[in-house]
Amino acid sequence: RMETDCNPMELPNNAGFEEDSDYRDFEGTDVKDMRLEAEAVVNDVLFAVSNMFVSKTLPCAEDVAYINVETRERNRYCLELTEAGLRVVAYDFDQTDDRLQTPYHETVYSLLDSLSPAYREVFGNALLQRLEALKKESQS
């Protein structure tokens, strides 16, 4: 058992964490929220693009993460992931361009579908193969 110098129960109630404190939204939340979400996005569609990874240069926060993607057409994008969805924020890795006013997409599928015909083809073929496999499974 680890020894502590301070028993949390002995702290006075006004130890700097009042209701109006900046920390109230912090309790019980995972600061890596959007990074984890971004990793899941990458894992979902990596097979259908040339390269895709969560940016290690741009800051990830609870409410935003950045994903670099290179389509099979060799076009590079930096995507911003927020509660609003995904959008292109630059036409290169690890960049953001505030002048860029691109629409948000609810899913990475719809975003990539709009950017990359090759993605659409690869993803569609994977879907067809999966459906064929399910069909064979149900017939056996």
From TrEMBL:
Highest taxon listed in the record's lineage: Eukaryota
Q: Name one GO biological process term.
A: regulation of canonical Wnt signaling pathway
List the molecular function annotations (GO) for this entry: kinase regulator activity; protein kinase A binding
Q: Name one Pfam family in it.
A: GSKIP_dom
**Limits of the GSKIP domain:** 34-134
Q: Which InterPro entries match?
A: GSKIP, GSKIP_dom, GSKIP_dom_sf
Q: What is one GO cellular-component annotation here?
A: cytoplasm
In the record, the note on similarity to other proteins reads: Belongs to the GSKIP family.
Mind telling me what this protein is named? GSKIP protein
The species this protein belongs to is Copsychus sechellarum
Q: Which gene encodes it?
A: Gskip
